[in-house]
Amino acid sequence: MPDIRAIASARYKSTLKKNGVKVVSATEVISDGAKGIILESVLEGYTEYYSADLSEKVIRSMTDNALKFKYNGGTRLSVM
User: Fold this and answer.
1) ∠ CA 72-77-78 to the nearest 5 degrees?
2) Tens of pLDDT along 15-56?
3) Which of 12, 35, 56, 65 is the right S-S partner for 70, CB 3.0 to 4.6 Å?
């Protein structure tokens, strides 16, 4: 099943291109040719991987903390 974020990203890029908007990265030099297309795809793939991996690590850590009865964050209510 296609990832909804990838579909949305492609749709937004297409809409911007149709309206004459050029998206420029502030951190990467991405050319307009074939090399730029593959580089952009690799960077998007890596970003997607990083996000999914980080999510798994956070959930695992929060679960471990909960099993050890540790505080996972949020607002604590205390009585003075």
Assistant:
1) 115
2) 999 999 988 888 888 888 999 989 988 998 898 899 999 999
3) 65
